[in-house]
Amino acid sequence: MNQNMIYDRIRVGTSGYSYDDWREVFYPAKLQKTLMLEYYSRFFNSVEINASYYTIPPAAVFERFAEKTPPDFEFIVKTHQETTHRRKENAGALAKLLVAVNPLAVSGKFKGFLAQFPYAFKNNESNRKYIRETKKLIGNCPLFVEFRHDSWNREPVARFLSDNDIGYVNVDEPPLKGLLPVQELVTNNLGYIRFHGQNEKDWWDGKGSARYDYSYQESELEGWLIHISSILKKAFKTYIFFNNHPGGKAVKNARQMIELIKHGISP
Fold first, then answer.
1. What 3-state DSSP class applies to 70?
2. CATH number for region 3-264
3. Per the confidence metrics, is the pTM higher than 0.85?
4. Strand locations in the chain, DSSP E?
5. pLDDT one-digit tens code per residue, 54-93
C-alpha cells in the first residue's frame, strides 16, 4: 500500500468550522461567514458539524453545505443535546435531525452521526439499552459514540458496540482520574479519533470552551502515529477531528497531523 492510498483512507478535519476567532489565524479577516465552509474545504476533506448539538438547523442549511463543498467532501453531524444530555425526547429529536440532514445524505456527503455523551453517562444496562434504541431510531445511518467516563473502558463494551454496528470514538484528553485513556478501538469498519487537548487545569472547571484551549506540540501528535497506524489496520476508513478550537489551534494541529500522516506512517 503506497502513501497516497493510506491517506485516502483517512479523513482529517476540525470539530466545527465557523468560529470568529479563526479570523486572521486561518480565515481572512473580512471573509463573510457564509463563505467560511467553502474556504475551509480548500484545506480539509471533512468536518464535524457541531451546531446541531445546540439547535437542529433546517434542511436548507444542510443543502447549502452540500452545494458549497467539493464532491468528495464528507460531513459528520453531531446529535442534538436532547439525544446525549437530556435524554427525554430522543425519538423526536432524531426524527427532526434525520429530516434536516436528508439533502446532505442525498448528495452522498453525509457519513454519520456523532453522539458525544457526558461524563455522568456511565456504563450500565440502562444506558447500553438507550444506545441500542438510539441506533434503531436512525436505522442504517452510521452512529459513532463518544464516552467520557472510564467505566466504558471495558472489553464487553467493544463487543456490545460491534454487535450493534456502532462506531467507537477514541479520544485524546487529559490523563485525569475518571477519564478515558488513549485507545486504539475499532468496533466496526470505521475508525474515529477526536483530539480535545491536554488542558488539565481547565478541564473540570473551565467555562465555555476553556477546557479545549490547548495547542499540541508536534511531538505529541507524532506520538499518536503509532495508534493511528494500528487503527488503520482494523478500519476501512478513519476519521480524525480536532476539537481544540479556541484561537484556531484545531486548524493548526489538524494541518500538522495531515503532514505527519503523509510522511510518518509506513505503507
1. coil
2. 3.20.20.410
3. yes
4. 10-14, 46-49, 74-78, 110-116, 143-146, 167-168, 170-172, 190-195, 237-242
5. 999 999 999 999 999 999 999 999 999 999 999 999 999 9
